[in-house]
Design brief:
Layout (H helix, E strand, L loop, with lengths): L27 E6 L9 E5 L5 E3 L12 E8 L1 E8 L4 E2 L10 E2 L4 E5 L6 E6 L4 E2 L19 E8 L4 E8 L12 E2 L10 E4 L6 E6 L10 E4 L7 E8 L7 E5 L4 E5 L5 E2 L1
C-alpha cells in the first residue's frame, strides 16, 4: 500500500528483495487516524513511497498533524529519534543524523493532533529531493536556523543512552506549540529516558522563545532498573560561555553544575 510504513527485522548479512513493475510518481494521499483511548493514540507509521528522498519540511502547513516525526532504530534494543520540523532540531540516539529529508524506503511515525479523528498527508513530486551529502548514504544533515540556541542533554547507563534538547527560537513561545516535540517512549526497562516536563506530558524537544536564566526548568528521567546513570551536556550551541547549567536532584536534595566535561552521576 502506497505510503504505509512497515517494520521488518532482518538477520545479519541477510538480503531483502523487492519486485514490481513501476516506481511511484506524482500525487500520493495517505489517510491517517487517531482513535481515543488507544495506546499512543494518533501515531501512524508512514513509509516514503518514492525512490527518492522526501522533504518533510513542507508538512508544517498540515494543521491536523504535529510538525514532528519519529524514527525507530535498533541498536541493541529499539530506540526512537525525534525531529522537530520547524526548528530542524533532532535527537541523535541512533547515531545517525536525522534531518528533513526522509530516505527512500524509510518508515517514520507522525501523529494526528488531539481532537482530530481523521487526517490526510498529501505528497507530491514537489516534495521529492536529492541527498545533499554524497558521503552520507543513510540520513542527511539539515543546515537551517543556525542562530538558534541549543542545549542538548544525554542520560546514559554506559550501554544505552537517550537525549532531551532545549531550543531557543524567536518564532517559538514558552507554551506548548509547534516547536515542542512530545517524547515517544521506548517502554524498555533497560533504556533510561530523559525529557522535559513530567512523565505524562514529556517533551523530547522543548522549544522556547527565550531560555530563561536563574529559573528552574523541569527535567525528568525514567530508569526502569537499578544501575549507575549519568547526565551530561553533549551540545551547547550559541550559548554564552559565562552561562552555567545546574542539575537540581530533588530526590537526593543535591545541586551540581554540569557541563560538557562534568556529568552528574546518580
Amino acid at each position: 500500500e502506497d505510503g504505509k510504513g512497515y517494520i521488518s527485522t532482518v538477520q545479519a548479512n541477510a538480503s531483502v528483495s523487492f519486485s514490481g513493475t513501476a516506481f511511484n510518481d506524482g500525487n500520493i494521499n495517505i489517510a491517517l487516524t487517531r482513535t481515543t483511548g488507544q495506546n499512543k493514540e494518533g501515531f501512524n507509521l508512514i513509509g516514503n513511497p518514492y525512490p527518492s528522498f522526501l522533504d518533510i519540511s513542507t508538512l508544517t502547513s498540515n494543521t491536523d498533524l504535529l510538525p514532528t516525526y519519529w524514527y525507530r532504530s535498533k541498536n541493541g534494543s529499539y530506540i526512537f529519534d525525534t525531529y522537530n520540523i520547524p526548528s530542524g532540531v533532532s535527537t541523535g540516539n541512533s547515531g545517525y543524523t536525522v534531518s528533513n529529508l526522509i530516505p527512500p524506503m524509510q518508515a517514520f511515525w507522525m501523529r494526528v493532533k488531539s481532537g482530530i479523528a481523521n487526517a490526510t498527508i498529501n505528497l507530491s513530486n514537489s516534495m521529492r529531493a536529492h541527498q545533499d551529502y554524497s558521503n552520507n548514504r543513510f540520513r542527511t544533515k539539515a543546515i537551517k536556523n543556525e542562530e538558534q540556541k541549543v542545549i542538548r542533554l544525554q542520560i546514559s547507563n554506559d550501554t544505552y543512552s537517550d537525549e532531551a534538547v532545549l531550543v531557543e527560537n524567536p518564532n517559538a513561545s514558552n507554551e506548548m506549540d509547534d516547536y515542542d516535540s512530545p517524547k515517544l517512549t521506548n517502554g524498555k526497562t533497560e533504556i533510561p529516558e530523559i525529557y522535559f516536563g513530567d512523565r505524562n506530558n514529556s517533551l523530547a524537544i522543548d522549544g522556547m522563545n527565550a531560555i530563561p536564566t536563574d529559573t528552574e526548568i523541569t527535567l525528568g528521567v525514567y530508569t526502569g532498573q537499578t544501575s549507575s546513570y549519568n547526565i551530561k551536556v553533549t551540545e551547547l550551541t550559541n550559548i554564552d560561555s559565562t552561562y552555567k547549567l545546574y542539575i537540581k536532584d530533588k530526590t537526593a536534595n543535591k545541586i551540581q553544575e554540569i557541563s560538557t566535561a562534568l556529568p552528574y552521576t546518580f
